Amino acid sequence: MQLLGYDAAVIGNHEYDYGTDHLAAYLKAAGYPDAHDQTVVLASNAIVPSGHPLADEDLFRKTHLMVLENGLKIGLFSLIGRSAAGVIFLILKIPKTLLFLQPLNSCGNCILSSLL
């Protein structure tokens, strides 16, 4: 996605298909966290325990603020919905150490944090 020039990418339920350790290794192989300067990776309502590479190595961000050349500011965030979170836990059997906050509350928090 970096080569295609995307500004941002989001972590969805299929990115967890092979587990959180595999996702962390994939992001590191793609150059993150340094690659956030080119294509930021977002997972706004994901809570990863400390000690896990996804959290400790800054492999994804909660929000991102883009400022366009004309000064327009655009705030970005991403959410995993309850149904997708259910798929991650029930079908993929990802350990419950990974949590997803309620999407509506997370949305409000992301908006508030971008205004401050």
What this model shows, in words?
This protein has 116 residues and is of the alpha+beta class. It has one domain (8-107). 32% of the residues lie in helices and 17% in strands. It contains four helices and six strands. The chain has a two-stranded parallel sheet. The chain has a two-stranded antiparallel sheet with strand order 3-6. The protein is globular, with a radius of gyration of 14 Å. The mean pLDDT is 88.
Please compute the radius of gyration using only Cα atoms.
14 Å
Strands ordered across the widest β-sheet: 1-2
Largest sheet: 2 strands, parallel
Instruction: Estimate the global geometry from the Cα principal axes.
Output: globular
| Unreliable residue runs | none
Number of β-strand runs: 6
Which class of secondary structure composition applies to the elements?
A: alpha+beta
Number of helices: 4
**In angstroms, what separates the terminal alpha carbons?**
30 Å
Helix-residue proportion: 25-40%
Order of helices and strands: EHEEHEEHEH
- How confident is the prediction overall: mean pLDDT? 88
Residues in β-strands, percent = 15-25%
How many domain modules?
1
List the helices and strands and how they pair.
Elements: E1 8-10, H1 20-29, E2 40-42, E3 46-47, H2 53-56, E4 63-67, E5 73-77, H3 82-91, E6 99-100, H4 103-115
Parallel strand pairs: 1-2
Antiparallel strand pairs: 3-6, 4-5
